[in-house]
Structure formats: structure tokens, C-alpha cells
């Protein structure tokens, strides 16, 4: 497997910090900062859709 290129952590107020990464095979990854060896993976397009939906408030009911 090609290495994952992790972005800087994103930290919400008082919440866990998350990291998003990509690889050379068009895969995207998300993990808790410091626990990058336990990640979720999907396509980059799926990650884009997730982020757009969260920004649009479609996941607010989960909070």
C-alpha cells in the first residue's frame, strides 16, 4: 500500500482532533489525530460529499 499523506489536524472546540489524508490511488482517509493507524477509508469523491453535506448542515441532527 502506498503511504497516506495526512493533512494537519482539524480540531473543534473541546472536541477530538481529526486528520484527513489521501494516497496516490484516489483514496481518502479520516482518523483521530494520534490514532492514524485506525482510519476509515473511501474514495476522495465520497469524502468531498461528506464534507459538503456536513457544511450544509445535513448532519446537525447527529450532534
Automatic annotation (TrEMBL):
Superkingdom, taxonomy of origin: Bacteria
Official protein name in the record: DUF397 domain-containing protein
Annotated source species: Streptomyces sporangiiformans
